[in-house]
Amino acid sequence: MLTEKKQSLMLVINPTAGKNQARDNLFPLTNYFFTHNYHVTVFPTQAKGDACNYVAEYATQYDALVCVGGDGTLNEVVTGLMMCPADKRPRLGYIPGGSTNDFANTLGISSVMEEAAEQFCSGKPFCCDIGKFNGRYFTYVAAFGLFTEVSYETPQPLKNALGHAAYLLEGAKSLTSIKSYALKVRCDEEEINGKFIYGQLSNSTSIGGILNITRTGVQLDDGLFEVILIHMPENLLELNDIVASLMSQKLAECKYIFFRRAKSVTVQADSPLPWTLDGEAGGSFTYSQAEIIPGAVTFNLDLPGNKPEI
Ligand SMILES: Nc1ncnc2c1ncn2[C@@H]1O[C@H](COP(=O)(O)OP(=O)(O)OP(=O)(O)O)[C@@H](O)[C@H]1O
């Protein structure tokens, strides 16, 4: 085994992710990769920001890069990769070890770590689009509005309930309890003005457990975001219409929901609008600019037809 030429693998692990489950699986994972033709170097993060710095500094020296952690750690790893020259980025594997693992759900990666490792080892390259928002990167979502704050603390079973947004909206006691934002949004060539309660730019089917859009034809490699803006309902009938459309995922059919695909989006607000990027706080801005970078990161995935089934 040792005489065989092995490939080099940089394994970045957030030991605190998912209540330490990433840390507790470190030995089986390194053992799996070692017995599948990889020399593994482990980079355990010590604090927020480490994963990005490790990857930006060392990833180009490796044949493969594997991230073990949640969506936040994956965001850092991808950000680090984007800081490496495009032709020197190693292929990326993701072993979901967080508490939400939204993007892993979209990619169809197993939540059993050894199975996810197997999916990487037997996988083929898949070039995935990456989002850029006010100079920062995101792998699957930039969002603002009512539910983005809640999603950090919501328990997992609730997050997984179909259409968390619909659930929350349905639970809204009155319209006055729903906060809205007056915005001017440009979506490629189209401009839309209005009061919105929620918005997202995404490249994913499952977003913070907030919205599931599996039935809307999402493609991770089409060079386009899905853009969803939910208007402030003016009465309970409109609210019911929004809830029904979210639950049935017929977003395009609801006149209170703006649903498009776009390469570039700008959002102008009267006062700083708080955003989340991949489920983490993303800063507050009166002006935001987002664009998609087509095929920026190459995942190694073992999926039917080598393309996420979404
Ligand atoms: N060693 C560390 N100690 C503390 N925080 C860390 C460490 N390494 C990374 N972090 C930060 O922890 C945050 C949460 O990590 P991550 O998202 O991977 O796990 P999670 O919250 O359990 O999962 P998920 O986001 O999927 O629910 C990220 O912002 C990450 O930058």
UniProtKB/TrEMBL annotation:
Cofactor(s) demanded: Mg(2+)
Highest taxon listed in the record's lineage: Bacteria
* Keyword line: ATP-binding, Kinase, Lipid biosynthesis, Lipid metabolism, Magnesium, Metal-binding, Nucleotide-binding, Phospholipid biosynthesis, Phospholipid metabolism, Transferase
Q: Coiled coil where?
A: none
> What SMART domains has UniProt attached to this entry?
DAGKc (SM00046)
- Give start and end of each DAGKc domain: 4-137
Q: Is the keyword Metal-binding assigned to this protein?
A: yes
Q: Does the keyword Lipid metabolism apply?
A: yes
List the PANTHER family hit by this protein, alphabetically. Answer: LIPID KINASE YEGS (PTHR12358:SF106), SPHINGOSINE KINASE (PTHR12358)
Q: Name the chain's protein.
A: Diacylglycerol kinase family lipid kinase
Native source organism of the sequence: Butyricicoccus intestinisimiae
